[in-house]
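Sanity check

After download, print the first record. It should look like this:
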Amino acid sequence: MPNMETAAKIKQLKKTNTAQSETKSQEPASKPCFSEIKKEANSTFEQAIDPRNRTVNIDALKSFAFQNFPKGSPMRNVLAEERSILTASDFLAKLETWQALLRSI
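Expected structure tokens:
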């Protein structure tokens, strides 16, 4: 069961995702450029790391995959099965597999 701080982070992430989806419906259908995605990813990743417990929250990564990859995508399916909070060592071990999946798209 997640602690109170983790629950608060998850709640904040859900609020952010809801606000982003409302904003997206008002924006034109153009895709963001790579630099915008990279900037957002870096910001989100910095918030996802908890150095005290050496854990990484991948909820933002899961959300990104569900918004940007089609149903049936191997990357989307793999992330759907992952726990939301991974130890740093588990996260680093899985990165190589995720990179291979991304290259196959």
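If your output differs, re-run the checksum step. Summary of this record's structure: Residues 23-29 have pLDDT under 50 and may be disordered.
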